[in-house]
């Protein structure tokens, strides 16, 4: 098996209890090299707890956890240097200047360069990558909330991590900063050196960034797949609408691409005003969480697409 095929995260039967409250009951998941995975779930579902266990910041109650081939509960500094973490909020470092802080933190990673990865990320390049160049000489406490969040992301990236955890990274960012952050993540993902696990409550962000979405609820992963997979399997079907010979038509299908291709094969230029409405991730997510909370089955893998015919509705 090559390094790229190995699981970067391999978790089985993870349980976590705070006192008498069981937060994680049986979390099982795998993430492979180069994936961008988004963990969704309602407030209090245990997303941060899961990330903290994977990051080695919190001891689990039970289960098997391997991160980059190592149990985080027994990991060393070399392992830690391969991981980047952006927590929900940092309150430290207020008196440091941005560039000075990143240069300082970067020094920790220098001994952990490998043949493939030169560590740390050059401070000025990194500051430019997160859009903080005009603020490089500012004290951290003088930054706005959004600028502070960009710095948090830079702190997570300074060691050129192979695995990056981002806990609600865009909370508090304005639309421009959010877009720039998305471009940054897409750039990292395109290079495929960094596997990314993020949490968010912004479903459009999850849909945009993630190759794969996992939904955590009731202490378990209740769905796991691409946004399109989940939408098809859980929320149902796409609606296709079109006009032919002056009449409006509508058809519901789980395979809209195939349906539209066949429609054009049959009617070619006769088709106009074509619209395809896919079930959104929001539709899917709300259905999943509602089902989980009412005790219905939510097994995303078990639900198969409905059989359907490809007749054109006239
Ligand atoms: N240190 C702690 N001690 C006791 N209970 C805790 C602790 N940390 C978290 N919890 C509880 O565990 C549950 C899961 O919390 P967690 O922060 O992991 O959820 P989350 O999915 O990240 O939520 P959010 O979306 O609101 O950030 C919550 O009920 C929370 O109150």
Automatic annotation (TrEMBL):
Q: What is this protein called?
A: ABC transporter ATP-binding protein
Q: Does the keyword Transport belong to this entry?
A: yes
Where, subcellularly, is it found? Cell membrane
User: Keywords of this protein's UniProt record, alphabetized?
Assistant: Antibiotic resistance, ATP-binding, Nucleotide-binding, Transport
Its ancestry begins with: Bacteria, Bacillati, Actinomycetota, Actinomycetes, Kitasatosporales
What organism, scientifically named, is this protein from? Streptomyces lanatus
- In terms of superkingdom, the source organism counts as Bacteria
The ABC transporter domain, residue ranges:
9-243
Q: Which Gene3D superfamilies match?
A: P-loop containing nucleotide triphosphate hydrolases
């Amino acid at each position: 098996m090559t390094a790229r095929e190995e699981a970067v995260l391999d978790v089985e039967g993870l349980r976590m209890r705070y006192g008498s409250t069981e937060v994680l009951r049986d979390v099982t998941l795998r993430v492979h090299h180069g994936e961008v995975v988004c963990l969704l779930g309602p407030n209090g579902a245990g997303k941060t707890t899961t990330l903290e266990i994977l990051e080695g910041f919190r001891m689990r109650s039970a289960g098997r956890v391997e991160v980059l081939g190592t149990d985080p509960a027994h990991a060393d500094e070399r392992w830690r240097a391969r991981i980047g973490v952006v927590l929900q909020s940092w309150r430290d470092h207020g008196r440091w200047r941005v560039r000075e802080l990143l240069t300082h933190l970067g020094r920790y990673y220098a001994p952990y360069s490998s043949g493939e990865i030169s560590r740390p990320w050059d401070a000025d390049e990194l500051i430019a990558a997160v859009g903080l160049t005009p603020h490089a000489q500012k004290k951290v406490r003088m930054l706005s909330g959004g600028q502070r969040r960009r710095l948090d992301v830079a702190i997570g990236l300074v060691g050129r991590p192979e695995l990056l955890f981002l806990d609600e990274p865009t909370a508090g960012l304005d639309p421009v900063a959010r877009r720039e952050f998305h471009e940054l993540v897409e750039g990292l993902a395109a290079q495929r050196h960094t596997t990314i696990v993020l949490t968010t409550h912004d479903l459009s962000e999850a849909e945009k960034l993630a190759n794969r979405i996992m939904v955590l609820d009731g202490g378990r992963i209740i769905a796991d797949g691409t946004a399109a997979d989940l939408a098809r399997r859980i929320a149902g079907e796409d609606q296709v609408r079109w006009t032919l010979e002056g009449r409006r038509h509508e058809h519901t299908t789980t395979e809209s691409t195939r349906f539209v291709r066949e429609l054009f094969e049959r009617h070619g230029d006769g088709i106009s005003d074509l619209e395809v409405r896919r079930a959104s991730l929001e539709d899917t997510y709300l259905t999943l969480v509602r089902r989980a909370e009412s005790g219905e089955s939510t097994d995303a893998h078990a639900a198969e697409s409905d059989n359907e015919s490809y007749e054109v509705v006239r």
